[in-house]
């Protein structure tokens, strides 16, 4: 049995691409077979419930609208005729798929083998100490939520002697070693020394560690590429989850902004 925590950013990433249904259903299979127990701090569940509509449902709907518009623009510029596109039918299909993938992630969090844990006063006080001492993930910026997530997860697993424990977060700039994004930061590693602890920034690699060959190499590599988009090209810090912002080419495009230096990465994906 493995005990696993999925950070909020992992849940959001899973929902933002329909191909990730392979990962979601593989996770469900491992939970059903009692190979995995999810350990989810309540703050992660609250963040997921708060952001899933905007970050997943609205994201997919706005994305397909921009693709339809771009397709029509290309056809118009080329002067060619094309079959009429049933915009409403396509949007309804995407809406159904977005709702479906949200529901499948909800089912993981609500599974009878998932443990949703509360944050006690001891962990809250410890988080304040870590902030004062600038320990990861508070070593670069105010990351109190991230600190509460990792400290409450380790407190629970250590108190209940749950091992091996795997923490998965694509937010490697806050949790990982600066020299190696695949290794946990030494501050956290020291705290987890009492149990068998593993950190993964790529959920596909984590699941393949639990069951070899469960996730295809192609999907593992694509997850790695997706995470690199959110690494700032200027300073290497973590970029945000993205938002629709005015583009220098006119209109709105999906852009990522660096938390550290403010640099922006414009994906060129337009919104109607």
Overall average pLDDT: 87
Share of helical residues: 40-55%
The assigned structural class equals alpha/beta
Q: N- to C-terminal separation? A: 47 Å
CATH superfamily of the largest domain: 5'-nuclease
Which strands sit side by side, in order, in the main sheet?
Answer: 3-2-1-4-7
Strand tally is: 10
**Which fold name corresponds to the CATH topology of the largest domain?**
Rossmann fold
Rg result: 20 Å
Please, how many helices?
10
Order of helices and strands: EHHEHHEHHEHEEHEHHEEE
Second rung of CATH, namely the architecture of the largest domain? 3-Layer(aba) Sandwich
The stretches of 5 or more residues where confidence is low (pLDDT under 50) are none
Count of individual domains: 2
| Mass-distribution shape | globular
**Portion in beta strands:** 15-25%
Main pleated sheet:
5 strands, parallel
């Amino acid at each position: 049995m493995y005990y696993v925590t999925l950070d909020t950013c992992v849940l959001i990433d899973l929902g933002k691409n329909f191909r990730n249904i392979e990962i979601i259903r593989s996770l469900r299979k491992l939970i059903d077979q009692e190979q995995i127990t999810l350990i989810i701090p309540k703050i992660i569940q609250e963040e997921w419930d708060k952001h899933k509509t905007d970050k997943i449902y609205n994201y997919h709907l706005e994305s397909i609208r921009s693709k339809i518009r771009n397709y029509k623009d290309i056809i118009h510029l080329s002067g060619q005729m094309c079959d009429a596109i049933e915009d409403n039918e396509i949007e309804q299909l995407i809406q159904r798929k977005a709702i479906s993938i949200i529901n499948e992630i909800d089912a993981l969090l609500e599974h009878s083998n998932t443990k949703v844990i509360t944050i006690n006063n001891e962990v809250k006080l410890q988080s304040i100490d870590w902030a004062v001492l600038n320990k990861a993930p508070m070593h670069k910026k105010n990351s109190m939520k991230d600190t509460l997530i990792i400290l409450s997860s380790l407190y629970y697993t250590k108190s209940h002697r749950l091992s091996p424990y795997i923490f998965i977060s694509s937010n490697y700039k806050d949790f990982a070693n600066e020299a190696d994004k695949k290794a946990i930061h030494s501050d956290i590693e020291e705290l987890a020394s009492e149990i068998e602890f593993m950190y993964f920034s790529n959920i596909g690699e984590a699941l393949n560690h639990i069951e070899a060959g469960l996730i295809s190499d192609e999907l593992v590599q694509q997850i790695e590429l997706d995470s690199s988009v959110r690494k700032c090209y200027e300073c290497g810090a973590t970029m945000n989850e993205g938002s629709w912002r005015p583009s220098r080419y006119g209109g709105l495009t999906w852009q990522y902004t660096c938390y550290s230096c403010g640099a922006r990465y414009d994906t060129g994906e337009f919104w109607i």
